[in-house]
Structure formats: C-alpha cells, structure tokens
Amino acid sequence: MTRCPAGQAEVEMAELYVKPGNKERGWNDPPQFSYGLQTQAGGPRRTLLTKRVAAPQDGSPRVPASETSPGPPPMGPPPPSSNPTSPLVGSGPASGVEPTSFPVESEALMEDVLRPLEQALEDCRGHTKKQVCDDISRRLALLQERWAGGKLSIPVKKRMALLVQELSTHQWDAADDIHRSLMVDHVTEVSQWMVGVKRLIAEKRSLFSEEAANEEKSAATAEENQTIPGFQQAP
Amino acid sequence: MATYLEFIQQNEERDGVRFSWNVWPSSRLEATRMVVPLACLFTPLKERPDLPPVQYEPVLCSRPTCKACNVDVPALIELFPSFQFPPAYGGISEVNQPAELMPQFSTIEYMIQRGAQSPLIFLYVVDTCLEEDDLQALKESLQMSLSLLPPDALVGLITFGRMVQVHELSCEGISKSYVFRGTKDLTAKQIQDMLGLTKPAMPMQQARPAQPQEHPFVSSRFLQPVHKIDMNLTDLLGELQRDPWPVTQGKRPLRSTGVALSIAVGLLEGTFPNTGARIMLFTGGPPTQGPGMVVGDELKIPIRSWHDIEKDNARFMKKATKHYEMLANRTAANGHCIDIYACALDQTGLLEMKCCANLTGGYMVMGDSFNTSLFKQTFQRIFTKDFNGDFRMAFGATLDVKTSRELKIAGAIGPCVSLNVKGPCVSENELGVGGTSQWKICGLDLTSTLGIYFEVVNQHNAPIPQGGRGAIQFVTHYQHSSTQRRIRVTTIARNWADAQTQLRHIEAAFDQEAAAVLMARLGVFRAESEEGPDVLRWLDRQLIRLCQKFGQYNKEDPASFRLSDSFSLYPQFMFHLRRSPFLQVFNNSPDESSYYRHHFARQDLTQSLIMIQPILYSYSFHGPPEPVLLDSSSILADRILLMDTFFQIVIYLGETIAQWRKAGYQDMPEYENFKHLLQAPLDDAQEILQARFPMPRYINTEHGGSQARFLLSKVNPSQTHNNLYAWGQETGAPILTDDVSLQVFMDHLKKLAVSSAC
C-alpha cells in the first residue's frame, strides 16, 4: 500500500495502476507504474526467478516437438477449467487493476479544497516571508483557474481533496506523500501549481511546530509561577 | 550448515560477499593451478534490515600502519598480535561482549558522531537541443524530481546547447545566468573566477570562507537548498526553451557537452569539494562542438561504429575520450559523481563519456526519448527509499581492504578509482585496478558491487598449521544519504587446505556462480584494451584448463568426461558469456556496448548472472512455472516463455497458445484457467519491472512475431542444421567457433580437456 496512512480503500486502489508505455517514442517501452505501486516495491528486493537448468552432461538427444516440425499443429481448444492440473498463478500482484467495482462517488468540490488551502495560507502570513506567500497565493489562483476551467482530471481532484483533509488534521507526512504521488503520476497537470501546495504544507508544518514549542515554553513558565495553596515553598 | 550452497547464501546475505573459492588452497603454486583466481564479489552497502548501526566508532588497531578494526578478535589476534583493547573495553566478559565479538556481527556498521554534516548536492546539466516534446517531458521530470529530493539538499542548473548557461538561483527578481562559449575549454580556476566564486565577500551575502568545507551550510548563488528555491526553480525549468540557434537542413545541432560538463565539474570543485554531490547530465544527442566533441555537425558523416573504430577511422574518439577521462578523474578526486542520462534514437557519445560514470560510480541510463516510461521511471527510481525511509544512494565511499599475511590484493574491478595506497597487502601482479589496497567509490547504492581479486603468496614449503584460517577485512567509510558519515566493517575468514591432499574439499567449496561472474568481469575488463578474439581465446583457455584440472575423465576418451555438481553449470556460463553483448560487440553500436558493460561492472551476483545467462521460465498447463534450458528446444507450441536478460523482459507465446488467445478462449468462463495461464507470466514480469534499476525494455511477442528475435537470438541454437565449423589444429590456443551450439561447444571442450596434447 502507499505510505498514506489515512487513505480510503477506493483511493488506495486508484493509486495502484499500470499504464502502457509510450510505444511511439520508445520501442518496447515498458509499462508505467503509479507512485503507489512503485513505493510498494521498496525494501530488500527478492529476485524470484533465478533458477537455472544444467545442460545434460552426456549431450543426450533432446525431446523433439519444437517449432520446426512441419505443418500446423492440430488445434483443439485448451483444457477446460475443471482440469485439475491447472497451473499456479504467478506470484506477483494483480496488474492493471482498474477500480471498476467501486461506486462512482461525487466529484470533490473545488471549494472544499481551495478554502482550506487559502485558510492555511492566511495562517502562515505572519510566519512566512511576504514574497513566498505571494508566490503560493499566485499558484493557488492558478489551481483554482484550472479546476474551474475543467482542466483537472478526476483522480487529481480526488487526491487533492484527500491532501487537504490530511493537512487539516496536521498529518504533514501523509499530505506530503500525496503531493509527491500527484507530482509523479500527473506531473503535466499539476507541476505549475503543486510546488505552491508543497511549500504551503512545509510552512504550515513549521508554523505548527513553532506554535507547539511556544506553547510548551509558556506552559512551563506558567507552572513555575504557580503556587499551590497550602503547600510550603521549599526554602 | 548442511551444504556449501547454504553456507554461501548465508554469507552473501550477512556480509555481501561471494568468493570464487570458499576453502583456500594454501600455497601460491596450488592457487595458480586452480585456474580461477581467489576473488570475491563484494557489495559494500549490502541491504541489512536486521543490522542497525551502532552509535559509537570502531576501535582501531594501535599500530599506525594497520588500522584494522576490532571485529572478530580471534582472527585479528592472528593477524595482528600486538592488538590491544583500549581500557574502555575493560568490562568484557562472556555475558557482556561488545557487538563486534559476536560471530553474527561479522558485518557491522558504525555511525560517526563528530564533524559537520554537509547537505547532498544535485547539479542538473541539461541539453536544450531537444525536440519540443522531449524537452517538455524532460522539464516535467526535473520539476517532479524537486518533490523527490530531500528538502535541505542543494540543487543547481546548467543548460547548454551551442552556449553553456550557468543559472544563478535566487528567490527574488529577475533570474540571471552566466553564459560561456561552447567552443573553448576553461580551467577550473578560470571558471571559478568568471562565476565570481573566488572574489572576497560580497556585501549582500554571507562572507564566504576560504575553506568551504568547514562551513558546509553556506550555499552558493548557483546551488541553493530545495526548500528555499523549489518554487523559483520550478518556474525557471518551466520557462526553458529549446536552443535558439537554428539548425540548417542536413546538420546536427551544435551541442557543447564537453564544456558544459567541464563547467559543472569546476563549479562544484570550487564550492563544495569532498562532499556528496551528483552531476546529472541529460543529453539528447552527441557532442558536436568544442572539446569532447564526438562527431561533426554534418549529418551525412555518421557517428563512429565498431567497424570505424577497428579500422582506426574514428576521428574524434581519442581526443574526446581524453577530455572526459580528465573530467572524470578530477570529479572522483573531488568526491563527486557524474550521471549520464542519454535519450536519443542515435548514439550520443556514451563510448567517449563512459569514464565519467564508470570512474565516479555515477549512473548511465540510455533511452530513446525523454518522453518514455523507461526514462521517466528509471529517473524516479534513483530517489527510491529503503525500508528505513532513506535514499538508497550513498556518496564519497573509500574501501580499504586488509588481508592476513598469506594473501595479497591484486586489484578491483568496478565503479571505482585507485587511491594508490601501497603497503604489505598489495600484490605486484595486477588484476583490474591494482597497485593499491584502497579505492574510492564516489557514488554507490545498496547493490553496487566490486570484484576484488587476491593472490595467495604463501610459499609451497611453508605449511599452514592445521585448521589455519585466512582473514580479510573490508572497511568502507561513506556518507549516508541522511548526510551522516558511517563506517561499515566486514571481516571474513576461510579455511586453508592443502590442495595435494584435500582437493575434494576445495572442489566442494567452489562457487561456480561467483567464479563465472568474476572471470567475466576480468574478461570484459580486458576487452576494453585488448582485441576481441584475444579475449575469447583467453577465456577458452582458462575454461579448458579448469576442465582438465577438475573434470573426471579417462585420457583421450571425451565420452568419459564428467564434472561434479559444483562445476556443472560453469561451462554453460562461459558459453553464454562468449555470445553475450559484453564480448560480442559487432551486433551493437559502441554506445550500446558501453552501456551494457557499464551495468555489468557494478551489479551484484544475481543480476550479473542474469546478464551472462538470461533466465528462462516456462508456463504451461502441465504444472507450475519452471526454469528451462536456454535452448531452442524449450520453445514449444503449448508453452509461454518468460525471458529475463536484465535489459529486456520478453514474454513469448508458443504457436498454440497464440492461436488460443486469438480465438478468445480467455474470455470464456469455462476456460478461465487459460486466462490464468496468460496472466501468470505477466504478473511475474511485473514483479521484475516494478523494482529493477534501470528499467528494462518490455517485449510481449508470440510465435512468428518480429520481436521474437530477442528470444531466438539468446537461446542456444541446438536445433539448427548448421554443422560447419573449423578449429585450429595447430599449436596455440584454439578458438571454439562462434554460433556453435552448446552441444558442439561442450563436445569440443571435452575433446580438448581429455587430450594430452593441450
């Protein structure tokens, strides 16, 4: 699964897909895996297919029945499914999964995504340089324009909704991971404005930890100053 | 440990080592008679999820010339009798042992606590003489990479075409760049002067100290932290245009790769020497101008082929190679590495530029276009994280090898340069990069593997005590991707044996897979400087001698020839190696050969073996998927084959299977098992495609398909009617003819091995 801890099932499934490669530009271009599938493959790589067969030492004649036998082979149908010697399925995960079995959910609303982002930006205004805020603001405006103009695909909108959710519950790493998955899987659509969202997450995170640190400090000083009634102060 | 196979595998998993021999012949004379040298494949940063690094530094031997670490003390006491534990270790007892003394910690990693940790540096060097689609795709990949880089890494941008532009990265106002002519090479000092890197402190910036490495957090105007500069750099990348200089009909664009790289190397040299950095060169065609040019701009004069090189008709090759070798050596000396991402339909000069990647440990990626999944995903995989969430790449490694006194070091083959450290461990006979016991690997990852070759120096008349063991210690200092410095120490020991009386023990402990890869690396190393046929002759001679020594046979009776299990696959490996693109160059362009050899010289054993002898698995209704002989007899009408050559994954449907698929049986519910059969190899292929770096090409073909040639060219042609062969009957090593089948090859081999004439 992806690193996104709070992801709902349908979003997780949508993030694990395989697209064919670009056959026009590259001969035998391999298929393209989504970010979710690629991060799944992390960890020690076990190469499963590694066995070899030794050639017979005495050079005995091999079983014939190769491609060079003359005439077309008699073509009956394959053995039907009830045949007990059906082969083991390969060990890899199912490929090319498209989430067809899930109910079509209503599209994420633009306002539900943009409002929290703009709010987050407002929160950061005191803490972040003006120029950076303006830059982020510019990019959010671009996002809005694209969304309103119908230029964003459904997966992008869905994942942005999820990102905003993670952001509002202070799940910085999860939000960051979603931004990364969007950059990897949909770079053409998102590259111009996504870096603003990325920066926003970083700024909000640092603002939050600053505030938390300040709170701790003020709580500590408050404790020092507090006197407990009826308790003798140490000399 | 029931068998040697288990022993070998456990050692590889624990220590990242595979030795050609696991019981060592105790004298020099006997060792040379073994034919295959005593050598090992060593993966310095072998992934060990179960091995957390320890938080202290290793204790070193007190002798100043030694510096062996105190792992596996009994062996070390043998090697270094003067070794003393420092007082801090006074509390050692049976129950309270430091980690290093426990046998399962033969490999251990230490973290260095002191010293500033400098950020990683990524310098993009981007060719703008690309087609519009390609440039757009490349720009997007670079923008995407900004999200994958660590936030405090430093990043920089140089673009080039006819001119070379060094971009000043700033957060405010108009972006500036420094433009250089692409025709004239400059010295490092000139570059640094022109970029203003040697001027005294500028008023609006922090004072730049004379020794930048003492203040690692100072960034330069050209290399800024990602978290500060990502928005501006995203825009800058987005605005990059194709090289504006018009290209007339019949001409190539003027591409100044040589100068661009030179400026990149000089920039990093002047600002951040001795810290982890990658220069990432993205190029869409050959260098056509300035130093390092590989071909002129007239399209009608093609770029050199192997034929041209053989006929000494490659005008620019020597000079260009020299230019890039100079850059590569400087880069390695600075502790940086150079990656080359070359995407074009024609050659791009990888032959001349290969030293940049090979000497520094950088990557070489070859594709058809930046707008392909192969490039995009391979590039993404550079930033893959391991089980800990750290990048798999590491920087600035030095490998120091020490041996017990009966052994010396002959050399190493892999992505490294020599540090020229002489000493008592260093042999005068060189194999690979020799004359040293220390090498530098500026760029490496969790699978980077070196081949290290040894020499047994013990004299025949100086017997080894009973049960005596030899020991080798590998000490790797490196910069982890978290920027922290670490030291990994692997100490291994193996038993000596007298080859006269215990040959069977030595035989049983032979690792034919490791031996094949180690000999192959030697062969490919030689092929870089020797003639092809000479290398094949040498390889054949070694194989014949090995069979003569270890085969069981009656003299002059080829039919009696047998090899024991631990040798049975070895001749096959050699057969396929001789046919492989590493030694057969004429089927490929010089760039392709360089690309294949680059990857061969750094992969671990399993992947290297796949490159030598591709894996072939067969899927059918007759049972579970099984490995089959890489032979035309494995191509059957009712089978699906999956072949993995490392660079390609081929799925091939036999004739009957293809007909069934065409008839649509997989869509009928009563033939669901056929659907599963078709899916099984696809799933297995996906497992491989999902993880491998670089990403392989993917060929899905069937009987009669044009792409079937990828399978047909690899399998042993045992089914042809070709019986024409000729081999030398005179004295001198015979060559076993190309394109013979494995059976014919083995027949010749047996004849030669049993003959008293050889």
From TrEMBL, chain A:
<keyword id="KW-0687">Ribonucleoprotein</keyword>
<dbReference type="GO" id="GO:0005886">
    <property type="term" value="C:plasma membrane"/>
</dbReference>
<comment type="subunit">
    <text>SRA1 RNA exists in a ribonucleoprotein complex containing NCOA1. The RNA also forms a complex with PUS1 and RARG in the nucleus. Interacts with AR.</text>
</comment>
<feature type="compositionally biased region" description="Pro residues">
    <location>
        <begin position="70"/>
        <end position="82"/>
    </location>
</feature>
<dbReference type="GO" id="GO:0005654">
    <property type="term" value="C:nucleoplasm"/>
</dbReference>
<comment type="similarity">
    <text>Belongs to the SRA1 family.</text>
</comment>
<feature type="region of interest" description="Disordered">
    <location>
        <begin position="212"/>
        <end position="235"/>
    </location>
</feature>
<feature type="region of interest" description="Disordered">
    <location>
        <begin position="21"/>
        <end position="101"/>
    </location>
</feature>
<dbReference type="InterPro" id="IPR040243">
    <property type="entry name" value="Steroid_recept_RNA_1"/>
</dbReference>
<keyword id="KW-0053">Apoptosis</keyword>
<comment type="function">
    <text>Functional RNA which acts as a transcriptional coactivator that selectively enhances steroid receptor-mediated transactivation ligand-independently through a mechanism involving the modulating N-terminal domain (AF-1) of steroid receptors. Also mediates transcriptional coactivation of steroid receptors ligand-dependently through the steroid-binding domain (AF-2). Enhances cellular proliferation and differentiation and promotes apoptosis in vivo. May play a role in tumorigenesis.</text>
</comment>
<dbReference type="GO" id="GO:0002153">
    <property type="term" value="F:steroid receptor RNA activator RNA binding"/>
</dbReference>
<feature type="domain" description="SRA1/Sec31">
    <location>
        <begin position="74"/>
        <end position="218"/>
    </location>
</feature>
<dbReference type="GO" id="GO:0045171">
    <property type="term" value="C:intercellular bridge"/>
</dbReference>
<dbReference type="GO" id="GO:1990904">
    <property type="term" value="C:ribonucleoprotein complex"/>
</dbReference>
<dbReference type="GO" id="GO:0003713">
    <property type="term" value="F:transcription coactivator activity"/>
</dbReference>
<dbReference type="GO" id="GO:0006915">
    <property type="term" value="P:apoptotic process"/>
</dbReference>
<dbReference type="Pfam" id="PF07304">
    <property type="entry name" value="SRA1"/>
</dbReference>
<keyword id="KW-0597">Phosphoprotein</keyword>
<dbReference type="GO" id="GO:0005829">
    <property type="term" value="C:cytosol"/>
</dbReference>
<keyword id="KW-0010">Activator</keyword>
<dbReference type="InterPro" id="IPR009917">
    <property type="entry name" value="SRA1/Sec31"/>
</dbReference>
From TrEMBL, chain B:
<keyword id="KW-0653">Protein transport</keyword>
<dbReference type="GO" id="GO:0090110">
    <property type="term" value="P:COPII-coated vesicle cargo loading"/>
</dbReference>
<dbReference type="InterPro" id="IPR012990">
    <property type="entry name" value="Beta-sandwich_Sec23_24"/>
</dbReference>
<dbReference type="GO" id="GO:0046872">
    <property type="term" value="F:metal ion binding"/>
</dbReference>
<dbReference type="GO" id="GO:0030127">
    <property type="term" value="C:COPII vesicle coat"/>
</dbReference>
<dbReference type="InterPro" id="IPR037364">
    <property type="entry name" value="Sec23"/>
</dbReference>
<feature type="domain" description="Sec23/Sec24 beta-sandwich">
    <location>
        <begin position="394"/>
        <end position="497"/>
    </location>
</feature>
<dbReference type="InterPro" id="IPR007123">
    <property type="entry name" value="Gelsolin-like_dom"/>
</dbReference>
<dbReference type="InterPro" id="IPR036465">
    <property type="entry name" value="vWFA_dom_sf"/>
</dbReference>
<dbReference type="Pfam" id="PF08033">
    <property type="entry name" value="Sec23_BS"/>
</dbReference>
<feature type="domain" description="Gelsolin-like">
    <location>
        <begin position="625"/>
        <end position="711"/>
    </location>
</feature>
<keyword id="KW-0862">Zinc</keyword>
<dbReference type="InterPro" id="IPR006896">
    <property type="entry name" value="Sec23/24_trunk_dom"/>
</dbReference>
<keyword id="KW-0813">Transport</keyword>
<dbReference type="Pfam" id="PF00626">
    <property type="entry name" value="Gelsolin"/>
</dbReference>
<dbReference type="InterPro" id="IPR037550">
    <property type="entry name" value="Sec23_C"/>
</dbReference>
<dbReference type="InterPro" id="IPR006900">
    <property type="entry name" value="Sec23/24_helical_dom"/>
</dbReference>
<keyword id="KW-0256">Endoplasmic reticulum</keyword>
<comment type="similarity">
    <text>Belongs to the SEC23/SEC24 family. SEC23 subfamily.</text>
</comment>
<dbReference type="GO" id="GO:0070971">
    <property type="term" value="C:endoplasmic reticulum exit site"/>
</dbReference>
<dbReference type="GO" id="GO:0005829">
    <property type="term" value="C:cytosol"/>
</dbReference>
<keyword id="KW-0963">Cytoplasm</keyword>
